Structures are given as structure tokens and as C-alpha cells.
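TICKET: design request
STATUS: open
ATTACHED STRUCTURE:
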């Protein structure tokens, strides 16, 4: 009798383990977040994997990923007790964010955390951006990518966007519908990343009628696996990469495109992006041919998979950190914990029924 009870209990526990593993393995967002935790630095920021210490742009991307997943930023603290918001506060207070494009990206990260970029750590990042506007040309920053990023940051901050800034963006488009990073209008220079962000900037600023040529271009460079390269043609290869696929997918979502129209061989961009998740580490690969965990790819994939865009920015409210005796598991957050507890309850009921029958 005892051996049968132990066998039943062992079966229940084994099934619980299988259920827990399956739930985690099937969730690229939870797995990606769990891996990103391993990349957090002592100051609360995140490394890009290519240089030592925290990187500002990568940290902003991770913040957008955390907001998209509904994570509590207070749960994301380093061994030294610093959160990503602490890192951003230190960088802004230190006055070492000089590039306007970086100020726009930090502004978006702060807005995602419910913070006010017009008054944060003694600085007015939006005011700095507005002061950089060149009325004679309509340009901001040092690149077309910056121009588009600044437009979406201003819209998300409920600030007016000068008409000249949107006109400048449109005037920088190539005849084939693309935008190039530094504004070159030759057809072969445009790239998917700048084009996808420009599409979202036009939608955010009320100029969605101007995006059709860019969508036509994206159709021409989509790979048969459903994903996108940075450029095509390109001397660096045209394999699908997670970063490009993520931002193009966000542009398609923002434009209200049907994914069925973007599945050349039955695989759409979302499925192509998810396929680049590494089942072992939980991180995303940059490309399938480069099977190494990539911080930027992982951080940028999560908001896209979650359905958020630069037009529909994820937003959470950061509450004061509270001490608790129960810690959520690093992988999966509250959602995964709920599923596991539900699985535990079902398994225990099954085990109890088995024991009663015995």
C-alpha cells in the first residue's frame, strides 16, 4: 500500500516537472527575460555583450522589454541593489548623455516606466530635443534613424511635432520607398531598420497615408523564411536577423497589416522571429547561422512578440519597492508562477484521487 502511494505521488511530481518545463520552454518572453537577468550589471544597467559594463542603448531596450512583459522594475535589481531606473537616473544626473538620439531613446524608456522625461534627475530631455531642432532644414540629430526616433518620442510625450520635421523625414525617402540611416537617397542604400522606424514615425505623427511605398519595399526584401535582413542586397549577407525582423514586425503591426499577406512560404515575420529563440539559454540569436545568445536581439524581440510598437508604447507604473517574503522565480514571472501553481494543484488532486482509489 505504501509503495503504491509513493508511486502515485512520484508520478504526480514527475508530471508537475514536465508541465513546468513545458510552460517555460514554450514561452520565449519568459525565457528571454530570464536570460536578460544574467546580463545585468552592478549599476543596474545591461551589457550589450560586446563591451564591458552597462550600455545605455541596450538598457533602454531592456526597459522596453520589461514594460512590454509587465515586469515590476523593482524586482530587477543587481547584487548592489540598483535597478535599470537607477542606472538611467545616474546617467541623466551625470550629464553624460550628449547625443540627441540617445536622449530620445532614454525618453521612451522613461515613458514606458511612467516617468516624466521633461523633469527627470534634474534634466528636461524633451526640452533638450526640442532645442536641437533645425528650423531651416527640419532635421534633428545626426541620422534619419534619430529623426524618426525623436518624432515618436515627442508624440509619446504628448509634445508637438514640427511639421517641418515630418516633411524632412518624407523628403529623405528614396524613390524605392526606403530610408537610409544617414539620409542617402540612392535605392541600394536604404535599410529595413530605418525604414521600419520611419513608417512608425509617420503613423504616430498622423501621416500614415505616406507609408505604402515603404511597405512595398519591405515586401521585396522579405526572406522566404518570413524574416528580414538589414539590407538586400548587402555585402554582409541577407540572412534573417532578429533585430531587423522585430522592428519590421512592429511596423507591420502599427500599420495594421494582415500577417497572412506577409508569409511568402506560410511563415510570417512573428513566427520567423520566435524561431530565433534559443531553447537552451532562453536568449535570442541574432541570426540562425550565428547561434550565440545576443543581448540586443533578445531585448528587441520581446516587445515585438508582445505586440507593442513605437506607436503603441508599453507603459507600466513604477511603484515603491516593497519587502516581501515570497520571491517570484527568475524565469517566467507571475504568469509562469500562476501556471505552475495551477499545475501543482491539478497534480495533487490527481494524486489524491489515485490514493483514494488504492
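STATUS: resolved
RESOLUTION: sequence designed for all positions
ATTACHED SEQUENCE:
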Amino acid at each position: 500500500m505504501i509503495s503504491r502511494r509513493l508511486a502515485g505521488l512520484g508520478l504526480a511530481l514527475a508530471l508537475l516537472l514536465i508541465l513546468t518545463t513545458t510552460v517555460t520552454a514554450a514561452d520565449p518572453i519568459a525565457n528571454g527575460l530570464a536570460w536578460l537577468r544574467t546580463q545585468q550589471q552592478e549599476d543596474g544597467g545591461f551589457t550589450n555583450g560586446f563591451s564591458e559594463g552597462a550600455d545605455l542603448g541596450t538598457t533602454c531596450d531592456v526597459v522596453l522589454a520589461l514594460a512590454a512583459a509587465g515586469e515590476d522594475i523593482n524586482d530587477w535589481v543587481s547584487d548592489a541593489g540598483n535597478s535599470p531606473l537607477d542606472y538611467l537616473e545616474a546617467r541623466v544626473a551625470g550629464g553624460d548623455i550628449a547625443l540627441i538620439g540617445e536622449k530620445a531613446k532614454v525618453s521612451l524608456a522613461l515613458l514606458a516606466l511612467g516617468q516624466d522625461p521633461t523633469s527627470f534627475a534634474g534634466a528636461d530631455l524633451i526640452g533638450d530635443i526640442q532645442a536641437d531642432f533645425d528650423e531651416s532644414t527640419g532635421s534633428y540629430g545626426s541620422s534619419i534613424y534619430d529623426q524618426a526616433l525623436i518624432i515618436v518620442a515627442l508624440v509619446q510625450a504628448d509634445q508637438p511635432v514640427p511639421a517641418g520635421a515630418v516633411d524632412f523625414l518624407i523628403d529623405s525617402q528614396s524613390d524605392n520607398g526606403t530610408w537610409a540611416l544617414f539620409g542617402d537617397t540612392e535605392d541600394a542604400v536604404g535599410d529595413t531598420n530605418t525604414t521600419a522606424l520611419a513608417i512608425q514615425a509617420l503613423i504616430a505623427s498622423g501621416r500614415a497615408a505616406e507609408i505604402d511605398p515603404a511597405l512595398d519595399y519591405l515586401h521585396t526584401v522579405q526572406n522566404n523564411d518570413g524574416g528580414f535582413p538589414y539590407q538586400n542586397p548587402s555585402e554582409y549577407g541577407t540572412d534573417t536577423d532578429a533585430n531587423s525582423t522585430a522592428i519590421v514586425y512592429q511596423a507591420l503591426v502599427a500599420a495594421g497589416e494582415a500577417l497572412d499577406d506577409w508569409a511568402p512560404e506560410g511563415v510570417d515575420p512573428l513566427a520567423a522571429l520566435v524561431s530565433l529563440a534559443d531553447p537552451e539559454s532562453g536568449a535570442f540569436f541574432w541570426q540562425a547561422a550565428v547561434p550565440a545568445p545576443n543581448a540586443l536581439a533578445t531585448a528587441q524581440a520581446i516587445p515585438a512578440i508582445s505586440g507593442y510598437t513605437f506607436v503603441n508604447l508599453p507603459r507600466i507604473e513604477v511603484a515603491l519597492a516593497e519587502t516581501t517574503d515570497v520571491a517570484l522565480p527568475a524565469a517566467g514571472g507571475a504568469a509562469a508562477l500562476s501556471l505552475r501553481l495551477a499545475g501543482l494543484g491539478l497534480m495533487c488532486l490527481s494524486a489524491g484521487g489515485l490514493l483514494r482509489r488504492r
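CLOSING REMARK: The beta strands are 284-287, 290-294. Residues 1-27+332-358 form one domain.
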